[in-house]
């Protein structure tokens, strides 16, 4: 399983009113350069190979970010039947990522590198949708 160095701890941090708390890792003391403070085996990380539908993802030859998205969507969809359910319960309901911003919010980054990246990401997501879903 996961191995924590006693030099660190996880704490719940206040979230916005009515939202779940956020969690963060804090050092309890001095942490030295090169010191391993946590060891997390891949087997305890949600990914396309650890989802309950890993065989279907492999069979469909889906990989990369799309495979992870499908894994997360499936595990969230089955709710408390998922072994990842406790993990999902500590995540925020909604993360204010720029790709989900309103048109007014996007105006605030007009002419910036971020706006260019968001346009590019939107095109890549459209391509993924057309390749996988349609």
UniProtKB/TrEMBL annotation:
CC per GO annotation: nucleus
Transmembrane segments: none
GO molecular function: protein-lysine N-methyltransferase activity
Gene3D superfamilies: set domain protein methyltransferase, domain 1
SUPFAM superfamilies documented for this protein: SET domain (SSF82199)
Protein name (record): SET domain-containing protein
